């Protein structure tokens, strides 16, 4: 006896609708389960302990299995609902119609054998049933797609904490090399000598590679913002008056070289492609690379002067020593001139070059860089140890001028007991800035000279020879050689490519490519800024945290972990299509229920009862009653009308239905 709800007349409707609703509930459960995992770290899942320990399963394996179980249940319930609809439709087409036995066989096996979906005759005879079968076979696709909507991706997690980060303490005495001497009345004087070795190391390293040195972060993946005051360069082209004065000074020196180095058989002309120097003063005379001593025609060079100006505009020395009654006063900023003369390569013949001396300084670039105290706003970011430093904003605060030291006495009196002036942090800060400027300038100062010689032999025939002197400057070992102003003299720093020997190695040598279009003024500012930031890479210049109360910085520490990522739209696209197709099928199933005036299934009892009234167009032998596969051809080709029809029944002698068709009330397409 059938149990509930199979014992009800409308059991098919109950099963179809109930399966759909329960399947929808499992869809919602699957969505809620994945949504709960979405964004959570993989290692933070906590499944049942006995599963994890006894089966050695990971959290991810268990969660994937649970998601697959949801998909399996949804597929099974929706498939059961559509298969129930298929039963109602199939029996509607079979019952009371004349059908081929083989066609009925294929139709009822459609849900078990997918190959029957390619039977064109079945699509012609039973289109509705075949469409339902296709839906039933495609429903598992949703169960394949839906578990895959939960994936694992690498994600970043930010943690904010207050920490000590690398800084620069410009009030440290580790930047400048100072020496002390005893003076009058037990007084003393502390004199600036030069930058320390560590200061020079940092500056030279940055100048060579052109980038900020590696700074040790508090964590491999971290970032923080830092505001601080530090030295900065402002570089710009000189005004026309100073530019004209400097170029005229260079021309006069070149002419003087031609006069002083000429003899009967040889003449010599010195030309300049690059010059860099620090000025003596702010005056025009003090700003030139060369100067004349009083009463002398000979020129002296300022090319190896690294700090200046140190005298006033009037040419009188300023008091650069800080004393009790003479506090620190910032005057004209420390400056450096950089000049390039591409026109020096214009003439290779001595006489022509001598006549066109002014053209050797045409199209020149003359830049003045001044030292200032600036405010920096920098963001330091480290991703897997890779350093990125972005300077958001810089603002000039005040100029930094030259001063030579401090003293405990005044000019007209002995030693003072007032030492409060020594507590001024700007004193040691200015000395630190000054040492950085000297280390930077010492690399750039000097010159690159071109010699043009003409020799006369006994027949009065002349021959001009031009060659470059070994550069007397450190700029050749810096990234500044890649600027557009230095391109014209780049070849002077390389190997001699005019020798025939190098032709044999053209296939193996790589030609240097310097295609930078950055102007040298901008490159100088950036290089000095990189040097300032690189000071944080040295522990020598770090603050003394045991003495100084340095505020901690808010550091963002980033960790990378695998998290679950749920693609909700894909899951509901798959489930939505499956539920929609099932709902349409159920609507058709309800219609078939009313057409059939009841529920049908493919149970044996249903087949047994329906075939009791079947009329078959062929005789069945006792051998055919065993039901073994394959189906005999004479039965497969036979026509059968199912259901009991009183007016069509023909009784045989033993009371069984006749084995052949006597009368047909309805015709089915399958009859053909």
How is the secondary structure organized here?
Blueprint: H1 11-37, H2 49-54, H3 59-94, E1 98-100, H4 101-108, H5 120-125, H6 127-145, E2 150-163, E3 176-182, E4 188-195, H7 197-209, E5 222-237, H8 240-260, E6 266-277, E7 290-292, E8 299-301, E9 321-322, E10 335-340, H9 350-355, E11 365-383, E12 386-399, E13 405-407, H10 425-444, E14 446-456, E15 462-468, E16 472-473, H11 520-534, E17 553-566, H12 568-596, H13 604-611, E18 615-616, H14 633-636, E19 639-641
Parallel strand pairs: 9-13
Antiparallel strand pairs: 1-19, 2-17, 3-4, 4-13, 5-11, 5-17, 6-10, 6-14, 7-8, 10-11, 11-12, 14-15, 14-16, 18-19
Helix pairs in contact: 1-3, 1-12, 3-6, 3-12, 6-12, 7-10, 7-11
Quickly describe the structure.
This protein is of the alpha+beta class and 672 residues long. The protein folds into 2 domains: 11-151 and 564-671; 176-218 and 232-374 and 393-551, no CATH class.
Helix share bin: 25-40%
Taking all Cα atoms into account, the compactness measure Rg is 49 Å
Low-confidence stretches: 645-669
Into which percentage range does the β-strand content fall? 15-25%
Approximate shape = elongated
The figure for the number of domains is 2
Overall pLDDT level:
82
Largest sheet: number of strands, sense, barrel closure:
10 strands, antiparallel
Distance between the termini: 39 Å
| Oligomeric organization of the protein chains | single chain
Structural class assignment: alpha+beta
Q: How many strands appear in the DSSP assignment?
A: 19
Tally of helical runs: 14
């Amino acid at each position: 006896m059938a149990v509930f709800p199979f014992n009800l007349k409308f059991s098919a409707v109950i099963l179809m609708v109930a399966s759909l609703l329960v399947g929808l509930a499992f869809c919602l459960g699957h969505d809620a389960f994945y949504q709960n995992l979405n964004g959570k770290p993989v290692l933070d899942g906590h499944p049942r302990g006995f599963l994890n320990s006894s089966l050695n399963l990971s959290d991810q394996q268990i969660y994937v299995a649970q998601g697959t179980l949801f998909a399996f249940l949804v597929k099974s319930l929706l498939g059961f609902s559509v298969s129930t609809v298929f039963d109602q439709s199939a029996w509607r087409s079979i019952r009371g119609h004349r059908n081929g036995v083989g066609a009925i066989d294929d139709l009822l096996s459609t849900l078990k054998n997918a190959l029957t979906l390619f039977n064109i005759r079945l699509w012609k005879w039973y289109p509705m049933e075949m469409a339902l079968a296709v839906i039933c076979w495609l429903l598992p696709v949703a169960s394949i797609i839906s578990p895959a909507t939960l994936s694992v991706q690498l994600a970043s997690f930010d943690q904010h904490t207050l920490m000590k980060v690398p800084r620069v303490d410009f009030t440290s005495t580790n930047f400048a090399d100072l020496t002390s001497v005893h003076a009058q009345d037990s007084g003393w004087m502390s004199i600036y000598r030069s930058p320390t070795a560590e200061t020079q190391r940092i500056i030279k390293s940055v100048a060579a590679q052109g980038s900020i040195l590696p700074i040790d972060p508090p964590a491999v993946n971290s970032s923080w913002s830092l505001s601080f005051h530090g030295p900065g360069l402002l570089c710009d082209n000189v005004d026309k008056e100073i530019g004209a004065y400097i170029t005229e000074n260079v021309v006069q020196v070149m002419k003087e070289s031609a006069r002083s180095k000429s003899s009967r058989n040889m003449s010599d002309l010195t030309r300049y492609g690059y010059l860099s120097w620090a000025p003596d003063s702010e005056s025009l005379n003090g700003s030139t690379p060369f100067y004349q001593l009083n009463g002398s025609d000979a020129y002296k060079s300022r090319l190896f002067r690294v700090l200046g100006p140190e005298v006033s505009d009037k040419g009188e020395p300023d008091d650069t020593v800080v004393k009790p009654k003479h506090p620190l006063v910032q005057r004209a900023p420390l400056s450096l001139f950089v000049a390039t003369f591409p026109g020096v390569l214009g003439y290779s013949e001595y006489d022509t070059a001598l006549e066109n001396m002014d053209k050797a300084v045409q199209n020149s670039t003359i830049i003045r860089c001044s030292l200032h105290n600036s405010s920096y706003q920098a963001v330091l970011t480290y991703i897997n140890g890779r350093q990125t430093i972005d300077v958001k904003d810089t603002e000039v605060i005040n100029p930094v001028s030259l001063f030579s030291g401090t003293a405990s006495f005044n000019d007209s009196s002995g030693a003072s007991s007032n030492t409060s002036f020594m507590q001024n942090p700007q004193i040691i800060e200015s000395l630190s800035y000054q040492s950085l400027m000297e280390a930077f300038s010492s690399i750039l100062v000097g010159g690159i000279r071109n010699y043009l010689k003409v020799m006369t032999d006994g027949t009065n025939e002349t021959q001009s020879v031009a060659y470059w002197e070994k550069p007397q400057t450190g700029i050749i070992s810096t990234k500044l050689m890649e600027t557009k102003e230095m391109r014209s003299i780049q070849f002077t720093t390389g190997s001699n490519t005019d020798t025939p020997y190098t032709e044999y190695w053209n296939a193996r040598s790589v030609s240097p490519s310097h295609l930078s279009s950055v102007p040298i003024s901008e490159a100088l500012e950036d290089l000095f800024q990189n040097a300032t930031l690189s000071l944080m890479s040295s522990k020598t210049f770090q603050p003394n945290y045991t003495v100084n109360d340095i505020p901690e910085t808010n550091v963002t520490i980033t960790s990378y972990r695998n998290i679950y990522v749920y693609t909700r739209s894909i899951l509901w696209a798959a489930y939505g299509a499956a539920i929609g197709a099932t709902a349409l099928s159920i609507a058709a199933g309800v219609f078939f229920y009313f057409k059939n005036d009841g529920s049908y299934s493919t149970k044996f009892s249903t087949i047994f009862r329906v075939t009791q009234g079947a009329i078959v167009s062929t005789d069945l032998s006792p051998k055919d009653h065993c039901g073994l596969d394959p189906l005999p051809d004479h039965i497969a080709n036979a026509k059968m009308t199912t259901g009991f029809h009183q007016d069509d029944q023909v009784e045989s002698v033993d009371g069984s239905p006749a084995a052949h068709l006597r009368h047909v009330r309805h015709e089915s397409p399958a009859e053909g």
